[in-house]
# Entry
Amino acid sequence: MNKNTFHNFPQTNKIFQKTLLVSAVLGALSATTLQAQEIDAVEAEEEFERIFVTASKRTTGLQETPVAIQVVSGKAIDQANLADINDLQILVPTLRVTPLERSSNVNFSLRGFGNGANNTGIEPSVGIFIDGVYRSRAGGAIGNLPRVSQIEVLSGPQSTLFGKNASAGVISVRTLEPSYDLEGKVEVGIGNYNNQLVKGYVTNGITDNLAYSLSGAFNTRDGFTESISNVEGIKDLNDKDRWNLRGQMLYEPTEDVKVRFIADYSEINEICCTVAAAINGPTTAISQALGGIVLDDADPFAFQSALNTSPTNDVEDGGVSVQVDVDFEDFSFTSITAYRTNEVLTGADEPHDVDYNSSDVLSLSTDLNIETTTQEFRLTSTGERTLDWMVGGFFFTEEVEFSDSLSFGEDARGFIDFLIGGPGTFSGVEAAIGLPDGFSYSAGSLINTHFKQDNDAYSIFGNFDYHMSDALTATLGIAYTHDEKEVTIAQPLNQALFSSLPLPPAPHPLSGLKAVQFLPPNLDLPNSVEDNSTTDSKTTYSVRLAYTLNKNINFFATAATGFKATSWNLSRDSRPFPSDEAALIAAGITQPNQSYGTRYASPELATVYELGMKTRFKKGGLNVTIFNQTIEGFQSSTFIGSGFVLANAGEQTTKGIEFDSVYRPSDQWTLTLAGTFLDPVYDSFVGASAVGGGQIDLSGTKPAGIHEQSITAGIVYNYELENGMHGYVRTDYIYESEVALVSNVPESLTREVSTFNASAGLNFENGVMLQLYVRNITNDEYFLSSFPPPTQTGSFSVYPNPPRTFGVNVSYEFY
# Structure
């Protein structure tokens, strides 16, 4: 580790100085508490609940695991009424979850690093694993999660143990295995916006060595965004309509062999998502002149929609997995085999309205199909030894097929007329160049694009813990990753007609029409000049020293790297690189008015340095990690209105501190406080895509969308009543400091979060439980993200956060 890596931490800025102060104060409080109470280590173990994690793919105690990790228990998930992974950020401040255009488009980021939402070609930098199975896209990980044991959130690159695309971190979800004793639970709930919930599970043994579990859930809610369009049949937006089934079998033929089979299937059929007007640009007047209803940008939280179609989202996700564990005398063997499918349809019944007002200009429908097969093998040493080891391999194969169809509506030609002069202007242009009247931008004309990606990858890894003494352990992790992708892009049908016409260069009078040549034809891939495949290989490592001061205090220092392979731009704005222009012209295969951009973004390489402390005392615990994390070649995907521009940022660095603490002054009270303080910067990002088109230099600026401060706090009061009844009252608070939503946009487009949630439960002696919950008690208002709507230069739309929701759940548990 470079001796200057952390040397300048206190001088970076005032925010970072505050983070160090917070760390010092918390550390001092912890030390003072330890000294004052003169805690015996054994006593602490007895009185403080011990949490076990699998962050190192071994079962170890949380406090003894030298990794920056936050754990959310199944009990906390139930008490806080978390429905899915989207809600996890309520309890984990280092995690940011951003829902976008569709029900399946969710972006996960840790410490400010994350991507892989709207652009199908980009796999997330935050790897998501459910019961050890990798989920390659967010759409396969957002369903309701039944019988969760706990969720582990690992910050920083985890490539040496988690195989593929974990350059920013990992979210690992563990569910409960089947029980040999009869257990079950049935729960029903109702809430505002006509929310209706039914879920449950049952588990039992079939024989002495075979057990099963079956769980399912059904969750519906009316939309909270009302349509104001004068179109019959338009439905309210942001409803909820999802269900899932999950079955497990556990087979243990001997004490040394365990086989766990899991099959799951889920569906989402929703009208999503609410889009509000934040800034109405000059083209707004054109939409209004065409008779369109345009949302008022003075109140983006009016929860109104002016769409002329209902944006349907249909998601089907399912898969099977088999995990085999075999214990031998000195080591254990683990195999996890999985096959998953994910299908996402948008605009299945009618295309989505993507001009976001009631004028009929532009619509979109998409069809995504993903098939993924994964296989992991691990050999792990067991027993007490000086050198603990683990070696293994991870194998991945995936097929992605994606279709994107843009269609022009009844008002498209009139809209273009207004842009270039007024009603009838385009008819005059067509007559002047010898085209039939109505040739261009006719209603129903299409731009269809089809994408296919085949991805094969493998990773070979090893992890070695050398116990230099009872107190000091050195760890070396190393992994070799190989990734191959092959992509085809075809645009077999482009009936937008005018988009296909070659227009003369300036100073010809018609050269200005290029500005309204919406999405010129794409060049198919492969072709005689461009290669349609990439091959990436990289060796990553992690080096760690862990020191145990006593059974209550542990320290660790880490240096690690992470890797994420090339991501292809599977969007309609996938364009040849400028470096290929001369060869394409020489080959004579360019399209009319050929444009250039990017086909793919090269690999990401992450590097992190960490210093951490973990403490545990009689009534609580405190964990603190200081880090300096850099990603070279961060894969940045920018929506510019017509599509996505994918590019590599030269280098992005985030220095920061994260902590989590728990204090239990009595058996009844539990207080939690966690926070993340960040100092992010683009060290180098020349040629970044500007919103609205063009390029800018973002070097030396703060990346948009990364909050510098994030705090979560919770208070839980547990109580007991007569006749065996007991319950709890819980409140949770999340704060995120103000941050710009997108680079190079008006300063008014910012996000700041200050949200309270609460819940209360009462358990009766007969197994009945009553739960009340309120989400967003104070109706806190903030934007989730922002984007420029297609064809509307100068306008900006936003996704507003949901309003207050509340409800009551009644359950019956038996065993």
Observations:
- The helical segments are 14-37, 41-47, 74-79, 159-162, 284-289, 412-420, 425-432, 581-587.
- Residues 286 and 419 are 8 Å apart (CA to CA).
